[in-house]
Automatic annotation (TrEMBL):
InterPro entries: CCB4 (IPR044705). It comes from Nymphaea colorata (pocket water lily). This is Uncharacterized protein. GO terms for cellular component: chloroplast. One of its GO terms (biological process) is cytochrome b6f complex assembly.
Amino acid sequence: GGYRGPVPKKDWIVEWVLSNGDAVRSLPIYVGGFSLVAVLLNRTASLVAPVIDAS
């Protein structure tokens, strides 16, 4: 017998990406900006300098 378990369907992901191409293309910019803000907030909350002194 073959595998009779659930087969994952990813067609809806493909359909969503194809129908929302502009949002998908701009997503990395938003994710990068959000992560930068998150790091700065984390450093501020931890009382760590926002930049590392290389001297």
